[in-house]
Amino acid sequence: MNLFQGAVGSMIDPQFKITRTGRTIIATALMILGEYPFVSHKVREVLFDGYEDALLSAAHSGIVTVLSGIFKGEGGSIVPIPIPQMPKFGYFQGYNNSRDEEYWIETGKKDINQIGRVQKWAGITELPDSWWMTPEARSIRGSDTGSFTQMHLDESSTSDMFFSFMCRSFTKTFYKKETIQSIPTMGKGPCHQTVDCSKSINFCHACCDGSFYNGTYLLPPGMFPLVCYPGRLQPTPFAVVYSPPHFLFSPDEVRNTVVGMSPDPEKHEPMIYYHETYSGTTLKVTNRLQVNMPVIKSHDVPSSENMPNVMIPLFWQEATPIYHQFIFNQVWFGFVLVPRLMTVLQFVALGLGLLLLTILVFLQLRKNQKTTIRPSGSFLETTTHWLSSTSSSSTNESGGLRRM
C-alpha cells in the first residue's frame, strides 16, 4: 500500500471539498505518475527507512513549489490534498522515539500523585480543534504514555495518559491482577469504549447513509483514526486507521471482510500497564497496535473503480520494555518484604504485649491471695507449743510423787 490509497481517500473526504473536476485532475495525475494501489517494497523501507514515491516527489518538486507560490501565496499549495512532509514515504520514517515534541511536565513537588503529568506538549495545553471535535478528546492529561500514575491503586481507580504517537489522551481502567516477579500488580488499560468512534446502532445504519454523518464518516467500533503525524504537531500525512490487532473490538462485519482475522483478548488487548498497587510503579507494559489502510472504491480513478470498500490490515506491532532485575528487587524489598515484616512485627509486638499483660495479671492475683488468707500459726509452732505444755505437766506430776 502506498500514497495512492491516501490520495483516493482524501479525494472523497468532505473536509477538502474537492469538486468533480478536481478529482478528475488528481486521477489523471496519479495515472501519469504511475501510482497504483499496491506496490512491493522491503519491510524495512515501508516501516522505517522509507522509499521513493512518485507522488511524494512530484508534490515536493521545485515546479510545484513555484506554482504554489504564484497561485496560492507563501505557505500555500496548489495540491488540494495533504502531502506528507517527508523526503521518503514510510509509516515510521524518521520516527525513532526521539522525534517528538517538547514536554512540560509536573515534578510532583506539591502533590506526588501529579508527578509526570503533562502540562504542555509542543507548547499547547489542548490539541487542535481540527483533530478532535470535543474538549474531552482534545484534552492533554495524564503522564507521557503512562510512565507515571498515582499511588494506592485499587480496582475502582482510574489514571490518564497522553499518547503522542496517537495524538490523544486515554483513561486507563482496571483490567486484571497479575503477579510479576513475586510482586502483586494491577493491570490497567483503555477500555474498548475509548476506541468506539460510533455507537453500534450507527454502524452502517440507514439513518447515517452508510456511516456518513454530520459532514464526516463514522468509523465502526474498535477503530481509531490517525489525525496527526505520529508524535508531531502536524496534520496526518496519510489515511491510516489504528485498531487493536485482528480488529479485537470491532464487529463481525469488519472482521469477515478480511481473511485470517482471529481475535484473542489474551494476545491482542491493545494497551495494558501493570502497576505495583501501593507506589503505582509501572513494572510491565504491553503495547499492541494494528495499522490499517482504508481501501475505497472510486469511480473517478480507473485503477480504483473495481476495488472493494474494505479496511486492509497492513501490520501490527507489539512493544514490551525489558526491566533490569535490580528494579524488581528494589520494588519487592520496599513494597513487599518491608510491609510484610512490619505486619509480622506488629503481631509479634501484640503477642508480647498480651503475654506481659497475662503475667502481670497472674502476679497481681497471687499477691491478692497472700494478703487475704493469713493462718493463725504454722503447724510446727502449734506442735511445739503442745509438746511444751505436755512436758511441763509431766514434770509437775513426777515431782509430786517424789515428795511423797
From TrEMBL:
<keyword id="KW-1133">Transmembrane helix</keyword>
<dbReference type="GO" id="GO:0016020">
    <property type="term" value="C:membrane"/>
</dbReference>
<dbReference type="GO" id="GO:0005044">
    <property type="term" value="F:scavenger receptor activity"/>
</dbReference>
<dbReference type="Pfam" id="PF01130">
    <property type="entry name" value="CD36"/>
</dbReference>
<keyword id="KW-0472">Membrane</keyword>
<feature type="transmembrane region" description="Helical">
    <location>
        <begin position="344"/>
        <end position="365"/>
    </location>
</feature>
<keyword id="KW-0325">Glycoprotein</keyword>
<comment type="similarity">
    <text>Belongs to the CD36 family.</text>
</comment>
<protein>
    <submittedName>
        <fullName>CD36 family protein</fullName>
    </submittedName>
</protein>
<dbReference type="GO" id="GO:0005737">
    <property type="term" value="C:cytoplasm"/>
</dbReference>
<dbReference type="InterPro" id="IPR002159">
    <property type="entry name" value="CD36_fam"/>
</dbReference>
<keyword id="KW-0812">Transmembrane</keyword>
